[in-house]
Amino acid sequence: MAVSTEELEATVQEVLGRLKSHQFFQSTWDTVAFIVFLTFMGTVLLLLLLVVAHCCCCSSPGPRRESPRKERPKGVDNLALEP
Questions:
Q1: How far is it, in rounded angstroms, from Cα 71 to Cα 20?
Q2: Alpha carbon 5 to chain centroid distance?
Q3: Residue 31: which residues within 8 A CB-CB, separation 6 or more?
Q4: What membrane topology is given?
Q5: What is the mean pLDDT of each run of 10 residues along the chain (83 residues)?
Q6: What is the pTM of this model?
């Protein structure tokens, strides 16, 4: 699938023409879709930054100390079996 040099030059000229005219998108929908995409990417990057900050800053170097839990009996006493 070879691309001819004429097609490549036409594409380059089209891109350069859009850059010179400051018309990057063809329609309003293209602009809206790009803004939604940037918002999504910003949200994902913010969440990743928060996860990294939580992992790096909030973890203690020593082992965790958990309070000893009381032993609870499992199950239910069947009072009908008692004399």
A1: 75
A2: 39
A3: 25
A4: Single-pass membrane protein
A5: 84 86 82 95 96 82 64 80 78
A6: 0.49
